[in-house]
Amino acid sequence: MIKLRQISKSFGRNEVLKGIDLTVEKGEVVAILGPSGSGKTTLLRCINYLEKPNDGEISIDDFTVHCRKPVKKDIHILRQKTAMVFQQYNLFRHKTALENVMEGLVIVKKLPKDEARKKSIELLEKVGLGNKLDSYPSQLSGGQQQRVGIARALALNPEVILFDEPTSALDPELVGEVLAVIRKIAKEGITMIIVTHEMSFAQDVANHVVFMDEGVIVEEGNPREIFQSPKEERTRQFLARITPESTYVI
Amino acid sequence: MGAQFDITYVFEYFIKLLPFIKISLLIVAGSILLGLGFGFLAALPRLYKIPVLKQLSQIYASFFRGTPILIQLFLLYYGLPEILKLVSIDISKLPVLLFVIIAYGLHSGAYVSEGIRAAVSAVDRGQVEAAYAIGMTGFQAFSRIVFPQALAISIPILANLVIATLKDTSLAFTLGVMELTGKSQTLPTMSRHFIETYIALAAVYFMISFILEKLFHLAELRLLRHETGVVKASRISLVRKWLNRELPAEIALNKGGSGI
User: Which residues in B60-77 are b (16+ Cβ under 10 Å) and which e?
Assistant: First the structure.
């Protein structure tokens, strides 16, 4: 179980997160929605400390990081319990698909090389890239790179995988293959927090939807509640703006 | 005046100059190694934005890029012993070659520090974040992810620097070092065939530069094998911007160092 308590973050005078409380149960798939600038990506990046929160607490099961005075070792542990899939994939460009997935296993988890290789091949096969093991990122399409990114995140057996707009940088025809992979691993019961603009995907895959605006959580609940009968006016306006009429039912 | 042009002297002097290649290459190798050390030390405070040290490294780079190498040679060889004499340290007996190598080392170090900064900044920040996200430490992220890529990117800078240093070593003759140029000054004293010496000398320098250029090109191909053609070209051109040896300009690529 992941618990965020009173997470706040400012960039200079700009207060991006204003005390966020969020609880994510094990196995839950959380979709964070909201207009750009609402702080959803920042919140996600705070969970694995790529962004340093000014205050608050992050707990994963019984392990807690106090953000006001974080211990360096705790940040390191937190990062090993979480994994991130980036909007821009961020693969290691000088390593092959296989090496990208193996890197964390060998260097961080200190697994023997052949064991790491075996596990990495399995994961790449799972994301449908069993035939691209030795390709470098520059030889892969965006969708393929992102699937390597997902395999790299899965490799570390994290408590939670954080997806930061995983399909926003992709050509429309490549979005489907990435969403299919995410859908597949969601079914395996891995806890996931996804920042996304794919409304129908969020509605379909998530079992917990969070709507953020201006650094606060405006509303959260199950997808049915949020998409079909949002309580807050701001949620309603947002959904009306970005959901096509045909799929939007009030 | 010189004697009438006679091409046979070109060949004769070319052969006579060959043994002195090793002195020139010794200066190049010694000073590049020293320069890599100085450059790395000078680049770190600027990459990590360490106050005071950062300013010192900027002054160092500006000074050695902004003053002629000939003056630096004179300052180090004639000036430093005089200054150290004041505190009763006598270094005037040390071999000239040592002064020369240190002077060229300091000089190339200034360029290396700029090159390292540019190359490290050219490795995108996202990969460092990805390294942190899978649980790597700062050192692991630097040594496993940033450094190998920065090295590949900086090969053209290094190649340029090595060839520039090779040509600069010709100035060491002013201190009486018997490298290629120094030797070439002595060859025609009897025969008076000056032009022939210079032709032979130019041919020797060109031959070495040409070989070095080819070797570096091979190294670059090998280290950048993970990039496809287009990306490779754009990444290298990013670095070529920093190759201008005339301007001690401040680098401001995005926000400067990637602050790892």
Answer: bbeebbeeebeebbeebb
